[in-house]
Amino acid sequence: SQSEAADYEPVLAPAAKLKVPMVCANPDLEVIRGGVREICAGMLALRYEELGGRVRYHGKPHRSVYDRALPKLGLEPGARVLAVGDSLRTDIAGARQAGLQSLLVTGGIHAEELGIAAGAHPDPKLLAEICARSGERPDVAAPAFVW
């Protein structure tokens, strides 16, 4: 069965009451794992904040993750890097904030919203509308990222 943030309240609520800080290293709200949509750490972090808990975020879209990761790869600021992901909210926003080019994988978490099956190309007009609503626009989009 698909879990929800409320399923974790027996742990989240007492921790928030005790003012235990939470570190959220993956602010994604949901992911697709094995073709199944699941909640992710970002959803739990949002619920924790609603319960009065304090959360420190480190992961896309926060620039700090790029500031730490790129030098470890031997890349200087301004290096040619393509950020690839399926979330406008985290992957594409994070790339923009870090000054990187981005590729949106449309067959991921936005596939249902785009009305497509995994691997299918979305209607460009609908994709543009979804991007406009989110305030994020990738440099390029592809139905899948496979190697």
Description:
The protein has 6 helices and 7 strands. It is α/β, with parallel strands linked by helices. Strands 5-6-7 form a 3-stranded parallel beta sheet, covered by helices on one side. A two-stranded parallel sheet has the order 1-4. Strand 2 (about 30-35) and strand 3 form a beta hairpin. The longest helix has 11 residues, at about 90-100.
Low-pLDDT runs: none
- Coarse morphology: globular
Work out the strand percent: 15-25%
Helix fraction bin: 25-40%
Count the helices. How many? 6
Order of strands in the sheet with most strands = 5-6-7
Write the layout of secondary structure elements.
Elements: H1 9-17, E1 22-24, E2 30-33, E3 36-39, H2 41-50, E4 55-57, H3 63-72, E5 82-85, H4 88-98, E6 101-105, H5 111-114, H6 124-134, E7 140-142
Parallel strand pairs: 1-4, 5-6, 6-7
Antiparallel strand pairs: 2-3
Helix pairs in contact: 1-2
In short:
The mean pLDDT is 91. A three-stranded parallel sheet has the order 5-6-7, with helices on one face. The protein has helices spanning 9-17, 41-50, 63-72, 88-98, 111-114, 124-134; strands at residues 22-24, 30-33, 36-39, 55-57, 82-85, 101-105, 140-142.
Name a few traits of the molecule.
147 residues, alpha/beta, 37% helix
